[in-house]
Amino acid sequence: EKQALEAFRGKPTITADGFKKIMACNIGSPDDVKGALDQDAEAIGLFRSEFLFMDAKSLPSEEEQFEAYRKVAVALKGAPVIIRTLDVGGDKEIPYLKLVKEENPFMGYRAIRYCLDNADEYKVQLRALLRASAFGDIKIMVPMVTCVEEIRAVKDLVEVCKDELREEGYKFNEDIEVGIMTETAASANIPDLLAKEADFFSIGTNDLTGYTMAADRGNDKVAYLYSWYYPAVLRAIKSIIEAGVKEGIMVGMCGEAAADPLLTPLLIAWGMEEFSTSAPSILRTRKTISQWTVEEAKELADKAVQCTTADEVKALLEAAAK
Ligand code: PEP
Ligand code: MG
Fold first, then answer.
1. ipTM of the predicted structure?
2. Boundaries of each PEP-utilising enzyme C-terminal domain copy (predicted)?
């Protein structure tokens, strides 16, 4: 098996009928870049920036953040690097931010909600990202988006930061892309509206599964509901991909489901472009992609969306797996 995977090293990621896809990697710090490149990552599909914040004793400065982002951009030599802005709250705690304990943190003051409410802190991160964008293809990704208002507010702040940096004589990419992490049930209901505002989508299936099924990923009693084989989650994924494709923006996936070989044909069928996984899953996912033609994948996807239960979906996908 390992040897068979080696055959996919250094190869492009293409379907059996020649459609190009991108194998990207999820990282948590600049130190992870080497492992990603060793496993043949073509891009960084998710840099979880909160690790920079969790490892510190106080908010990392613009300089510190700039250094971390620049390092990754340079190492990728012009290949895309999607950096997610701070996703605090939910399951991610940062002690020095002194957030009040909430009854229901996954429904609370998390990610973009915190950041827009603390715009001065958020601007430090946006300025660092912009400055680093002079050194590679950095894209900004906004977590936990539920409405158009949020992405518009972020884009406005990015423009404010650009004006400041221009004034101060810094170089940056004027056309830096600002995309959305589609990971809330809300985002799956208005993907058409969000696609008009965003430069790209990346599907965060870890949260999307939880928010769609109203099941906490860490709660054993409801763990049986936490599965992307449920038709509710499959349809959410399908509608997000199709809305992005229709609007002509790049659609990727950076949740764990991107590495699930059973799901790969469905993602191909719906037109997803970038698969972002942990480093050890890159070659295996590239191999799975190579085993499907778009036509075969579409045939299977048509059957999958007609299934009624998660068990039926899973059985269908298992029977079809190569
Ligand atoms: C996700 O929600 O799918 C995701 C990739 O983000 P995280 O697991 O960091 O919440
Ligand atoms: Mg998430």
1. 0.99
2. 4-292
